[in-house]
Amino acid sequence: MNFAIFARPVVTIYDLTETTKESDAGVVSTIGDEGLYGQVCQVRTAPGGVTAEGVTLPKEMAEVVSFYGYHGYVFASELQFCGEAELQSYLAAEWVMAGRATDVLTLPKVQGVRLLELERGALLRRLPEEAPHDGWALVRLVDGRTGYVRAVALEPVRWPMTAVFTQQAGRRFDEALALAEGCRPEELVPRALDRWYGGSEEAFRNALAEQAKRYLGTEYRWGGKSGRGIDCSGLVSSAYMQCGVLIYRDARLVEGWPMHEIPKEQVRRGDALYFPGHIALYLGEGRYIHSTGAAGSGGVVLNSLDPDDPLYREDLVKSLYAVGSLF
Question: Which Gene Ontology MF annotations are present (predicted)?
């Protein structure tokens, strides 16, 4: 089995081997997701190879499954391929996440040459320094180069990527991750809460809301998952990921990931709201945050379930069909 690291700031993951397709509305994109710099995936079929379904890939495209279980196709030029031992070593490094859009510079000063422009959610390996530079962190890039990032732009990486080694056809994602982490599937969420939030469900729920709100104003992008543009499920799944829990990437409840349906009247801050083809994160007091393609907003905004709230959206309230929770 082979693996790869996303080696561009934002890597498009397509749902088909073709990047566009015909629809009733005309030619549309087949983008399904985005991989962010430093994140990893399993390579199911190498460029030009034949998939398990008998499809011959274009020579420039690989079939991949992300560490959180999303299947798709990526241009090989945007990946750094590696073997299992190399990836194990890679993941064993000290990791930090870009907590905002940030530059990697050649020097620990603003006049340094820009090596890379990264989006929120990108991963970097932090390196020790004998003589640290105040306000800066020394990091290593995927290609081996080193550079500096403002320390204030970095956050801990709270999510595991180990399922990349254990995912296989027919195996549920939570079982794959639990196998890699050496625990039972039902222990995954409590372990994340214990590690990052002192076991507090309330602290976790609050963290989810705050992470999601950091994307306010970001433009809506179909299949997007970065500050350049993000879609509804990209927003919700990214907020959960950055808080340490991996949920299903798309806007529906799927067995094998930790989210499950609860009664609507039990909704609490941090739960997910499901509409046909759409998902939002509930913030409490009737309000929710979501990335919407609606013409009047076209991005990450706040709306409300309360008819008396000026942010009320009747069309969404009428179509709300489920509430999802980890608890």
Answer: cysteine-type peptidase activity
Cα Rg of the chain (Å, integer):
20
Number of domains in the chain: 3
Report the catalytic residues. 232, 278, 290
Same domain for 113 and 78: no
Q: Which domain holds residue 122?
A: 93-156
Q: Which of 70, 90, 110 is the last residue of a domain?
A: 90
> C-alpha angle 104/291/296, rounded to 5°?
120
Which run of H or of E encompasses 243?
A: none
Dist CA 308 CA 108 (whole Å): 51
pTM of the model: 0.96
Residue 318 to residue 169: CA distance in whole angstroms: 37
Give residue 326's Cα distance to chain centre: 17
170-211 residue pLDDT tens = 999 999 999 999 999 999 999 999 999 999 999 999 999 999
**Same domain as 81, residue 102:** no
